[in-house]
Amino acid sequence: MPNILASQDAKAECLLSMWNYLPDHLLLSIFKCLPPRAVLTASQVCFRWYRVALDEVLWRDLFYQHFRIGRGIPAAPRSLSWRSEFKRLHFRTPFVESEVIQQHRDQVLHVSFAHNGELFATTSKDGFIKVWSATYPCTLKHEKDMKDYSWKYTQFSQFNSNDTLLLVSGVHFGSHSTSGEIAVFSLDDEFELRCRVINKPYDIFGAWYNDSYLLSGNLFWRANYASSSVLYLNKASQALESERESVVTCLYKFLNKNASSIRTILVARCPVTMSGEIDRRQSYHSDMSDSLTDSETSSLTEISGGDDGGTCQPDKLSVECTESHAGVFKTSDNQPGFSVSDATAAAEAPGFAEDCHLLADGAAQAPSAAEEEFCDKYLIFTMGEQTYTPHQIGIKRIAASEMKDTIDRLKHRDLQLVPNNDVEPHSDKFDGIDHSIELHGHIIGMCLSPDHRFLYVNSRTWPKGYQISDPLSPPPIAEEIDIHVIDLVTLTEVGSLLRSHKAYTPNDECFFIFLDVSSQYIASGAEDHHGYLWDRHYGICLQKFGHSNVVNCVAFNPQDPEVLVTVSDDNSIKIWRSQNREHAVKRSTTSLNLE
């Protein structure tokens, strides 16, 4: 028996010595044939294997193969390494179902985050607006039943930029009512109601102009399918006996035709620096180190899809990246390589945004409240020209100097108080629209990138070449939802992405499917009972978020894109965290319990 054991030990020693003499390039070739988890396991054998397992060419090949990304697409701007990119997409992308909240009694329609990331708000067909803490576990902070104010349900919310006020939009009672209302609540006290203003049609939703003033709308019918849409500037806190009386002024009056109207308004900072130069800088934020912890290594498993979630297969972009980009490093085998300086050069190279528009946000910081007074803004809205369904994006530049004069008059109450905004301004003069973009489909959602450089739009396309003869009979719409990307510097569409999320409701009943954008990702709801997550740079679908009914809205935590919230017609709110965040909150909870 001792001889047998000695013989086995000798063979093991001989085998180990053979591996020691194996050249690095052969060892690297073997590692390339292994799945990523096996490579990480092998890196723990000895220092030499660890060094070979850190090879950038190895992780570049594993990255392209594992995530099925075209090799013509370079590494994302400002990335640290291919290995860190792999780590980000696998370990720092929100796809763990961390919490499920079932405290709404009906369909949950919308979710929005405070800018500081500490709170989020949900609206629902049960008539409630609810405000939650974004900590773990999430807890209810405020709630209000808006049916007390003759609302049928709440549909939308938005925090002002300093997170002191919450705009809530809702729909009035009535089977065929298009009338809605906006209410503003204070977040500094016991959720006190500050004002209420009429909002018609209700899918204008409303938007903040700045911390103290908001925009609402009203619709006045004229004749022959013509109407006028009037947008109002309202003071958010009314120091009046009745909150139903608004300190308000008419801001714009637009003429509509063919039964169309202004809907879904957004306010964006014009993407221009204080010096007047277009800010084209790009950034790709990453706080990731280049080393993986044991928990990260153990979590690296094969990716698979499923009915209730899982990752998506990559979807083909309708606008492909070109095969070569200025500043992209080529390795000895003529494959796209990576270095920090080269990625920066690629991001700043002329035409890069046109070649591959899924870029990270510009490095420009949001202006302070004082600076914002002197910044021009874009009023962005959906509209129509051929039929009543929204199929165009309209853009109107708001001059800061003119708005300053208007706000000064409102502050001194130099304007007439107009109860409920329900009287059409007498002037027959109509304002012009500075720019419009035709999308040839029914627009069902839009949002701004965090730096306000890009506008992302969910749209269901019309049949190609369809002729509209009756404005009340819009074309049939596709089940597939396209995401259109509009550059707000050039005011042009830089492409559309053919995606896997779907909607089935016909055009006469079509409702909003909200989407959201972080510095690195795009997410959207869908009617196929899933939310979806894509990477902005690589254009691949990373994850499907399972629900048992329509997913109406998604929202990233603006301070932590590793946290995402989805809301659904199944009455639930789901909080999704990355594996990195999930491990962190569980460790924190365990530590508190031990104390």
Question: Care to describe what's here?
Answer:
The chain is α+β, with helices and mostly antiparallel strands and 595 residues long. It is built from twelve helices and 30 strands. It has a six-stranded antiparallel beta sheet with strand order 15-16-27-26-25-24, with no helix packed on it. Strands 1-30-29-28 form a four-stranded antiparallel beta sheet. The protein is globular and about 100 Å long. Mean pLDDT is 80; it is low at 273-308, 313-364 and 414-420.
Topology:
Blueprint: H1 2-20, H2 24-32, H3 36-42, H4 47-53, H5 56-67, H6 82-91, E1 96-101, E2 108-113, E3 119-124, E4 128-133, E5 140-145, E6 151-159, E7 165-172, E8 180-186, E9 193-199, E10 207-208, E11 213-221, E12 227-235, E13 248-256, E14 263-269, H7 294-299, E15 305-306, E16 309-310, H8 340-348, H9 352-355, H10 369-372, E17 377-383, E18 392-398, H11 400-411, E19 435-438, E20 441-448, E21 454-461, E22 480-487, E23 492-502, E24 515-517, E25 521-524, E26 530-535, E27 541-546, E28 551-557, E29 560-568, E30 573-577, H12 579-594
Antiparallel strand pairs: 1-30, 2-3, 3-4, 4-5, 6-7, 7-8, 8-9, 10-11, 11-12, 12-13, 14-17, 15-16, 16-27, 17-18, 18-19, 20-21, 21-22, 22-23, 24-25, 25-26, 26-27, 28-29, 29-30
